[in-house]
Amino acid sequence: MNVTRVKKLARLLAELLVLAAIYLLGCQLALWLAWPIPGGVLGLALLLLVFALGWVKPAALQRGAGLLMAEMLLFFIPALMSLLDYGGLLRHEGWRILVVIAVSTLLVMLVTAFTVEWVCRWRLAHEK
């Protein structure tokens, strides 16, 4: 391997370690505080705080986050396989589950779109 590839691999591993550390810190906070919020959500809040405070620039974690996003389907395979154990539940309540999934997905998309729009307008107004 040449030096450039080793550096890129080391950088990727460092980014993944930072993201994993933030996730684990979020999980630990959820345990310590006994909050009913998943550790992953607290980890995302911590990541947002780290970005907002300027301690880390989002571009510094871009390669590691990109890898995780590209392989996201692998994280859902165990959850999808567990559905095989609940065939009866899905037959009886499946339509309700699908409605909840559809509505919540739509709400997340709308909130994200409005938030991005608001942030873009705010930045344009304050950059002048």
From TrEMBL:
Keywords, ordered alphabetically: Cell membrane, Membrane, Transmembrane, Transmembrane helix
Any one GO CC term of the record: plasma membrane
Cellular location(s): Cell membrane
Transmembrane annotation, as ranges: 12-31, 37-56, 68-89, 95-120
Pfam families membership: LrgA
Keyword presence, Secreted: no
Membrane topology: Multi-pass membrane protein
Protein name: CidA/LrgA family protein
Protein's organism: Pseudomonas kielensis
